[in-house]
Amino acid sequence: MSIWSRLIRLISDMPAAEARRVAATRLGVVRIFALCCFCAIGLRVGWLAFDISNEAQAYTPTTQQVIRGDILDRDGQVMATTVPVFELYADPNEILDPREAAIKLATVLTDMSEETIYSRLTRKTRYAELAWRLSPKKYADVLRLGVAGIHGRRKLTRAYPNAMAAAHLLGGVNKDGKGIAGIEHNQNALLASGEDLSLSIDLNIQAILREEINSQMELFEAIGGAGIVQDIETGEIIAMVSLPDYDANHIGYIADDHRFNRAAKGLYELGSTFKVINTAMALESGVYAETDMIDVVSTLRVGRHIIGDYHPEKTNLNVSEVLIVSSNKGSARIADEMGADIQKHYLNQLGLFEKTSLEIPELGAPLLPSRWGRAEVMTISFGHGMSVTPVHLTSAIATTAGSGMLITPTLIKQTAPAEINVQVFSPHTTAKIRAMMRRVVSHPRGTANKADIKGYLVAGKTGTSEKISGNGYDRKANITSFVSVFPAHDPKYVVFTMIDEPKGQKHSYNYATAGWVAAPVAGRIIHRIAPMLGVHPVDENAPEIRQSLMLDLPELEQEGAKHASF
Fold first, then answer.
1. Cα–Cα distance, 493 to 528 (Å, whole number)
2. Strand positions, DSSP E, 91-149
3. CA distance 447 to 461
């Protein structure tokens, strides 16, 4: 007879009252035992949670996250926003079969290899991060796998819907949601308070600028490029591109070369584009008038060095012609006559002695000569011996070819006219400069014929300079740039293009100079964006336009620009 049979028989032989007492006692014991089991399990779960929490401290946010304000373009398109995601992690002690779990997880976590997942699942720890911002859909897919020991917690993260568009400007945030680069860093307090921020950027213009710069880089096998579109009146940056770029959603995993902002941080000797400023100084200071003759024929020697021209001239030129045909000799002689004090005065007024005030931390400080002697004055006149960022140059040209009032660059959408009270150049001077810049593009001897877009009156200046290498220059590595304003008779926008280390091609007769590389892409950009910006084609021969451009300047010899190679 079994023990249970005996027990039942024993209870059945007992009086009813006694049997109920025994049953109640035994039920109480069972309840106490069950309660102890539940308490033990609860304590164990609590201990595990505490243990995992401690080990996760180095991987999870240490500050309470808030919903950051959105970053919008000037038309309200979202450039950065906050979205819910899941942090996915594992407790290796709870993984029953790490290899099987890795195989399953790899089918969902496609950006990680099976071996990487396996190595994390076999760590001697209670916390192994698998993904720190997993979408709700992918998190649900992971849960459906039914892998024991896989956990997740809901959190907030920053998302950039346009991926690479304006990545250098937007920057990014860390795991705590704090801005660490770009606008996210500069405007962190505002965004962290939940306020939205409208930038001056137009995402549609930005896309065109990026596409065209990238296309020209590929065509000329270049290593990099940059482009800027700026509003002349407000200083607003409408578009700014630095290539190569990156996906803003993955800023922490990007190579330094891709993260480097060539437009705002890169420092370059921007060559003959500086001749625009040099000519404006000469006119504004009264040292020269546009019709004064300059000796560009005789040898110009400075110390042991001789300053020469790409295409030597046979006759002397006037001041306007020096700019139009881009004569180094002529620019140097003009600067030499003005002297260091005048040159430094205007360069300083244009903001070329310090960082720009652009609302990002990645800004380059100009490289100035250690001494400012006669040789430095001359070489700076045609863009050598002094390095600035493209943003510096673009804003300086906005001032020099605009109203003459100092233009300060900004990435923030302006709701009211800027309070500008620094008159660097008179309207009389800037009007003459625009007429000369227009000739650079439209005249057969100008160096930027390939930027001429019918009806839009592009006015600009090319610049080709050798890159600094060690204590000298690398003759095989050029920076080609083109800075322009349009329309010339009523300037609204500045467009800057730069291609870094282009290589000569068959279609360019093996030239890799600005006239072949930087000017044509600027023309294509202007042709595409002008209608979007409300700039309509005009008849250049209309009397009022001819008068505004002062097209009665002395005529140059019609011999052509020799491949526009400056």
1. 14
2. 128-134
3. 8
Task: Delineate the domains of the chain, giving CATH numbers in brackets.
Answer: 71-200 (3.90.1310.10), 267-474 (3.40.710.10)
Degrees (nearest 5) of the Cα angle 510, 512, 516? 100
Q: Are 200 and 237 spatial neighbours (Cβ–Cβ below 8 Å)?
A: yes
Active-site residue, 481 included: no
321-to-98, 443, 448, 481, 546 alpha-carbon distances in Å: 77, 11, 14, 20, 18
Which strand (E) or helix (H) includes residue 465?
Answer: strand 459-469
Its pTM stands at 0.83
Alpha carbon distance 451, 458 (integer Å): 7
Contact 404, 426 (CB under 8 A): yes
Q: What is the pLDDT of residues 355-412, one digit of tens each?
A: 999 999 999 999 999 999 999 999 999 999 999 999 999 999 999 999 999 999 999 9
DSSP 263-330: TTT--B--GGGHHHHHHHHHHHHTS--TT-EE--SS-EEETTEEE--SS--SS-EEHHHHHHTT-HHH
Of 272, 381, 387, 465, the catalytic one is 272
Question: The tokens 């001819």 sit on which residue?
Answer: 546
Q: For the chain, what is the largest distance between any 2 Cα atoms, rounded to a whole number of angstroms?
A: 137
Report how far apart the first and last C-alpha atoms of the chain are (Å, whole number): 113
Print the SS3 string covering 192-258: HCCCCEEECCCHHHHHHHHHHHHHHHHHCCCCEEEEEEEECCCCEEEEEEEECCCCHHHHHHCCHHH
Which residue spans within 56-104 are E strands per DSSP?
71-72, 78-90
Mean pLDDT in the chain? 88
H or E stretch at 348: helix 340-349
pLDDT value for 48:
40
User: Which of these, 92, 95, 85, lies nearest to 61 by C-alpha position?
Assistant: 85
Spans of the chain below 70 pLDDT? 1-66, 418, 420, 470, 550-566
Give pLDDT tens digits for 403-451.
Answer: 999 999 999 999 877 676 799 999 999 999 999 999 999 998 899 999 9
